[in-house]
Protein 1
Amino acid sequence: MTPILATDAARAGAILTIDLDAVVANWRQLSHQVGPAARAAAVVKADAYGLGAERVGRALAAAGCSRFFVATLDEGMTLRRALPEAEIIVLSGPLPGCEEAFPADRLLPVLNAREQIDRWRGLADRKGRALPSVLHVDTGMSRLGLRYAEAESLAEDADCLAAVAPVLIMSHLACADDPDHPMNRRQLAAFQAARALFPGLPGSLSASSGIFLGRPWHADWCRPGAALYGLAPNGAKANPMAAVVRLDGRIIQVRDIDAGECVGYGSTHRAGHRGKLATVAVGYADGLFRTLGNKAVGQLGEHRVPLVGRVSMDLAVFDITGLPDGLAAPGGLLTLIGPGNDADAVAAAAGTIGYEILTALGQRYHRHYVGGTP
Amino acid sequence: MTPILATDAARAGAILTIDLDAVVANWRQLSHQVGPAARAAAVVKADAYGLGAERVGRALAAAGCSRFFVATLDEGMTLRRALPEAEIIVLSGPLPGCEEAFPADRLLPVLNAREQIDRWRGLADRKGRALPSVLHVDTGMSRLGLRYAEAESLAEDADCLAAVAPVLIMSHLACADDPDHPMNRRQLAAFQAARALFPGLPGSLSASSGIFLGRPWHADWCRPGAALYGLAPNGAKANPMAAVVRLDGRIIQVRDIDAGECVGYGSTHRAGHRGKLATVAVGYADGLFRTLGNKAVGQLGEHRVPLVGRVSMDLAVFDITGLPDGLAAPGGLLTLIGPGNDADAVAAAAGTIGYEILTALGQRYHRHYVGGTP
């Protein structure tokens, strides 16, 4: 079992600050945007995108969020301990042999395949009562969910439907981050066709980006995740969400470098002139991807400082040449994610998306929560 | 605090198998290779490259390893609880204000800068006794360690040396994975020059790859990490190390796909013909990098199956068209890292190194240890 490290901020190689009030503000903003016709749940899978599902969940529940989505049964069981009252929906559904754990913790499975439906119905039959669930129909991801023909045959099976007692029908958009992508209208039409098979059943189609496609995509329930955590949900436009995450790395050493000297593995950076470097205790083992070598930018006060050389496992080196004396000192902090350099910007430098920057955030960070419930 | 998930293998989206006997065999092989002139320590930083420092540490200590390297004070404190007797060396050295924690847990700091030396000496003076340490001289990484002139001035300061009582002088190679790189000889010469300043002090220069550069690079102590965990230490040549890691992802759903249908976000994969897909409960939140979209390969029995479409946060989809019926079923396992597809091969597909594949291994995996101490 992995130990929980860095409980003491002074010892930590980096401090991850998570603004729970900003998470709540983002949820309220999205709720307002889709309401009153639709409501907003909260997606807290992958440990709330690496930010801590229990803390995020408690803050959102206190703000009035009643419905939460997680990816796995284990995540659902963990979240149940933090949120005794909330509705918790498990996106991956029941794995064979794990069905009993769902009603034991009042977790709702998403039923993604006929095979999952049959097992869930078997459990309902054994228990002699209907067991609520969420139906997932695929509309173009080819990842999870019933095909249209499967949904059609389920809709004709009244006994099965009574047993698995769906409370929601959902699907997932493949290209919602690109508002002009033809898939968005195609998936909306496919979702509406599937919904017509189950009259009266509330629907859910959109995650963060889908919300910004407009009212038709909102259905009854939206499932924001990324936008709650401050990631830009709407591609090229200005990010309307409040910033949630800040990451400050600890400076271990400040050193001189002469012209011609090299930095890091593979000697990929060679100093062009005499200068100064700051070595920070954050590396790729902490989620600072190796792809950020010679590409990331840190901040020291108002100054932007480039990461030079490759990212090491536990260390990264920044060029602080020409900065005012005393701005960088051992034990001080250099900002890796923050205002003017948010997770989306770091992702762009790394060649990925902000989602992956957040979920890769490391276990060695000291985590400092701002706001939320006590 | 992040909860520890997936304690039950049946519920887990993936099972990570770690062969502690193979770790021990690798350490013995390297010890033999560098002995008797030199000895092998063990690098267990970053939670033993993601494999569990406590379990790995206990297995190696039982096999006779007496000296361990970690990256941070927190890692040292955690490892001390598992290894009451071992010598534990903290590579990042003491951060300002954290000096006292080192003698409290009998941790040896690496002193990387004059500033760290001065603080360590201050502690020794306050305690009225010598406090052992490890000296780090930089020989070409420009990352951590004293410059030659700083080492020279320290060597002339007998009082300081008596107080910080070095037991080892170390440096680190920048390009050891490339045996022909001119940096290797340059750094060896620089290290020998620095050692000459401290007659009689044992030296340590090489990590895994450096060991394979040959005897002159072994000095007195080698510091293998990657090679202990089965990563190839010697670039292009056949990997001489025993395999340590296996990763099996859980199949959630097996589904049909028609010609022309798309898979995953951005619709980056379009099926050319009618076929079958397996959706597996492992995604980039588990360290299956997004760069592996349309590039990774899984294994089902003897069959290699390509990952199709983008990697999602919690899911990845594999094309299992044409495989024998029944080979892939919900609840079954599909191998992501294993024989014929080791961490180095996955890294090559992802455009990185095996080290980053290991340190990114996810928190949601069920971890199954083979061998080692009970």
Protein 2
Amino acid sequence: MAVNLAAPDPSSLHPVPGVELGVATAGVRKLGRTDLLVVRLAPGSAVAGVFTRNRFCAAPVIIARKHLRHPVRALVVNTGNANAGTGSDGLKRAMQVCAALAHHLGCKAREVLPFSTGVIMEPLPADRITAALPRALLERSDWLSAARAIMTTDTVPKAFSRKLRLSTGEATVTGIAKGAGMIRPDMATMLGFVFTDARVPRKRLDAMVRNAADRSFNCITVDGDTSTNDAFVLAATGRGPDASSRRDLAGVEEAVGSVAQSLAQAIVRDAEGATKFVTVRVERGRSPDECRRVAYAIAHSPLVKTAFFASDPNLGRILAAIGYSGASLDADKVDLYLDDMLVAQKGGRAPSYREEQAVAAMRKPEFSVRAVLNRGRAQATVWTCDLSFDYVKINAEYRT
Amino acid sequence: MAVNLAAPDPSSLHPVPGVELGVATAGVRKLGRTDLLVVRLAPGSAVAGVFTRNRFCAAPVIIARKHLRHPVRALVVNTGNANAGTGSDGLKRAMQVCAALAHHLGCKAREVLPFSTGVIMEPLPADRITAALPRALLERSDWLSAARAIMTTDTVPKAFSRKLRLSTGEATVTGIAKGAGMIRPDMATMLGFVFTDARVPRKRLDAMVRNAADRSFNCITVDGDTSTNDAFVLAATGRGPDASSRRDLAGVEEAVGSVAQSLAQAIVRDAEGATKFVTVRVERGRSPDECRRVAYAIAHSPLVKTAFFASDPNLGRILAAIGYSGASLDADKVDLYLDDMLVAQKGGRAPSYREEQAVAAMRKPEFSVRAVLNRGRAQATVWTCDLSFDYVKINAEYRT
């Protein structure tokens, strides 16, 4: 029941020279489910990443962050178990998986980045994962299979791809992501991986992954819960055209940002129980931070989100959320729009406001809420969804 | 379906000399529903209050805050309409109600405190309220009727009463409150009113109402939404014994705090859709503020709250919430208890942890979550509830 989101057409997902994919069924949590992805990167690939700022970050996050200081030859991703809240034993198990994959590839364990997603605080079945690695390495999987292999409560695989023309030739950017709940990324989403064959200097890649995260995964929220395992990784294999001119680098950055944004929005469209995709835009605030605070207050309010679900233009709930956001704003100056319709003016009901029109706007599967603070020039956008019966159902039954 | 909360026995609610109550049916929103309460206070009563810090505070809050600078002779409370997000017209309508009541009582409009609760952003039907005032003034209502008259989505009227012995005689403290959703008070709850016949100096009353709020209404959350209309008022009529000695004042303060705490907990017990009453206690933090941040992160997490609903000891969700609370804590030091059961130790699963026991603990209608940060001496307690299907249902259907 994702909102305006279907599984991508496999032919739209371009291979990325220098990237090889293999999936397997390891039986991490459920039998017969593809739950393991191995991504091999050509030697010399540049890789950068951003990770959760949750203080309880998972074992694989700790290790991946450390391994990023070295060259990276492979990523290994399992679903079904997050290997989080597992202490030093969790670190050992994640390293066991890295070492096993490194052994097969003839590289060092520190050249492997591990990623896990799934249930928290249960021991990672590392033996089952390592046993499945050879099968994954024999596979030549496509992007759609890779996107499917990393799903948990996702209902739709998430993958986007773009070709772009650089001065040195045609480059490709393709990415996959997973995530549907426990989503309020802070530096990164649940799991997002974007690959390009363009040759990009490693230092530049760091900035690129941060900028991409800031306009994509850092602008979405489902339930305000920042995961312990969030990671967003960008790899440039260098097997395609060289991006060294300022203009080519800007082109790659734009394409990476656009793929990341499509992935981030796909996560919200496929959010647990979501029936609406809502763009919350805050304008004319004093600072971007103030605008983000206000936008997240709206996007996190359970009352606002249930009103979205009910197509109920209970605008007071939105104004109340703006009011408690912590921004020291002047309530009498705030204007509020639903799509292009002015619904509140100077903090009160707009004279032209007609509830029927607001209901009609909110009945659509996609609409926007726009708050104009009228006290500065900054702005921010957050994408979110509604809070439905199914969110409760999915999360009450997740482990049963 | 409130959690361990029944309507109070009327005989347990002691009259407070100097306080007269009258309720009426004004038809603010629904016909035939008692929706108006007038509280008359004896001349010379001292009154203090704390109010919402939401920047979109409602018209009655703006007026009540201002009128508190003067002597107070009466409170007037309506349900069905919050008179919030209504701009200058809302202020006029609230003043119209104050003036009408003042006219009947032969006092000044500024000696009346107005309170409203209900739907936001709709014009207050002040005419219907003023028309009902004479009927309310003719009534001699009891506390239970008064508590009922201020309910909105509450299912149980909330009233508590205590007698206490001062050196100068026996004093009474009785209070009522309402609230079930949009609850994350900041300085005060939705609406809470506590009355005593003890004679307390006005200046002391200010501190008393703040202290009482800090140990009661400021320790609860249902959905993290701070209302536009929150108000907590304490009135001392002085028609009973004099509380001027330090010891008597401490006695009154203790009784006021205890009545306020019972009212605050009753709000959580009767929270929209609540099936569990959960005490979240954070211990050994560096500062009370840090402990409150952690406690509220747990108490607000939709994932934690749905796990409470499902009696699912998904402890990782609690650790994740602690991790993103913003407290700069060391995750490896955190211990977690469910009631008295150690479930996580040093940030990981406790060796003695048995899931069946945790499920049993969470199946109870009341249990506690205790996070021990092991980095200081501060502590904080927050009371909250679970997030159930019915929360979504109630809030999706509130206005329909």
Protein 3
Amino acid sequence: MKFYDCATAPSPRRVRILMAEKGIEIETVQVDLMNGEQMSEAFRKINPLGEVPVLELDDGTSLTQVMAICRYLEEIYPDIPLFGRDPVERARVDSINDQLQANGMVAVMEAFRNATPGFVNRAMPGPHNYEQIPALSERGKLRLDNFFSDLEAHLANNQYMVDDYFSVADITAFAAVEFARWVKKSVPEEYSNLLRWYQQVKQRPSTAA
Amino acid sequence: MKFYDCATAPSPRRVRILMAEKGIEIETVQVDLMNGEQMSEAFRKINPLGEVPVLELDDGTSLTQVMAICRYLEEIYPDIPLFGRDPVERARVDSINDQLQANGMVAVMEAFRNATPGFVNRAMPGPHNYEQIPALSERGKLRLDNFFSDLEAHLANNQYMVDDYFSVADITAFAAVEFARWVKKSVPEEYSNLLRWYQQVKQRPSTAA
């Protein structure tokens, strides 16, 4: 297998953290997003969407999308389960992970891409060009305020995103909280539950990935 | 188990179609979204997000989010698998399903909620209020044009979303194509591959759900 990555990008980072948690090592190729390598003819043979991460299997099959790749790795490396340990727990991890993706990762992405000069006409990733919408960047920042306050409330009663079980949902939330710095949003200092959780996750060696 | 539904809403419909494909029958409660029942105190005890669908388990646990519910049902009713039949196929279904969700379902939702008078201040579902952004509604319609043309190209080489295997990704795509009517977008008549696929899926009894 070969993992197409970009060391500075938040989406492939989620896969890197998951691999580190599971102790998986996969040959990794850096894709130079800063210089548009993801849109090169060579890379679009690997992923026509022009996006990282990609997990290329030995038979040449390319797996794309963060969660599909993570779930595949969970399935072939089931030790240290990160998607839940029974059907109900798996559904709870899945549910909150989807919300963290939509309300955290996507909110930062909208805030960032719709207001950053280098992304004129590239307000969304993928093969199609879309103009920036300044109001969408502003809404992204508002959504991050709610993202932080919702997490603060949630973590008053949970050690991790689902009870006391560290899961892929914590990886998503952690990546989103750190990605939020790109739009100058950070956890308010009075959010003691969220900060406690953040420090706890930050101490895991995997988050250096 | 109890399934909280709204017969006219596109998100719970995806679960209904999956249940029909699998031949599952679950006691169903209609939630009156038109009159805001999802935001009532009684319903928010079941789902604090104020959203359908919800699958309430016999012990009172509420499972939320379309895909988490569908995946849970796949796990407890594994006959007639709709998420793939081996790890690679599951990853491929997952990957394209995520794209169909983002580029189809979400695009219609953005186009619809950001331009419909009844959704002033309610541009996103969930507990927080957000103002409408007219440019986001317009972008949603542009994205649907690309959604249709991408599917047309994809279906030139695939009977269904993943090869000749009918999966949950086809349910997502079908729900998105029909949801697009809400913003007066329909498949262009020259898109013969997409229309062939649509008719083929439409003929399945499950789509009456």
Protein 4
Amino acid sequence: MDLILRDLRTGDRSALERILLASAAFSAEEVAVALELIDLGEEPVADGYRFVVAERGGAVAGYACYGLVPLSDGCYDLYWIAVDPGLHGRGIGRRLMAAVEERLVRQGARWLLIETAGKPEYEATRAFYARVRYQEVARIPDFYRLGDDKIVYGKRLDRRP
Amino acid sequence: MDLILRDLRTGDRSALERILLASAAFSAEEVAVALELIDLGEEPVADGYRFVVAERGGAVAGYACYGLVPLSDGCYDLYWIAVDPGLHGRGIGRRLMAAVEERLVRQGARWLLIETAGKPEYEATRAFYARVRYQEVARIPDFYRLGDDKIVYGKRLDRRP
């Protein structure tokens, strides 16, 4: 089934909320933050949060949210990426990442960074970032809590073959 | 002359603005961000921005601003530290850092982190962090712009001799 990668639309919120809640990776607090960004993303402003939404057979299948790091001139953070748990293993996450990277390369971005946690629940998430060729660029031990490191993955977008 | 280390007061804003503008280290954009945090700090909320103000002979001599990292249970960021340029070299910055650390140790904090930039204008700032025993815990090359790295300095507060 074809995958469409498109901008965020006002009607996407409830489908994205369902996907975030269905995802084992996110706490209630994290879902609340993700939804706040979606609400901000529906009123686009310069240098605000940006979105790519994956749609499959007319239904929202996942999304990615990213934005420019304040005070930087070409460094972006991936704030959120989520795919409907019923559609994992079909390469939708990989397509979302590629769509974000393509948009950023076109506008001359230098870095796409992803902050994540070292806790066991994020094992699959970290394996995903490694598969799509992100490297660990920083790690701060016991950052979130004892035993839960902060890890920053990154990919240079201005030095691709 | 004695130094008093105290909480932020409503009347401090204009003195702090003068100190920030007089400091060669900060751009106009950075001063604006610092003042926004001061305005927020005057209306204290749980887990908001916190301040230590240094007062000398009845006049504000400098300040530090810090806060809990969202989603962490004991990791703090030092957002800002500034001392009146006419009063540099008297250990006021060191006293401000020590006051912040003491407050955090008392409440069981684990980390105090400081994000800064690798640009030459910040050389003196980085030397100051090294003098007060902060170590580089992460560095992302070309983060702010080409040639201007992001550097994170840190001190563990739960493992002191």
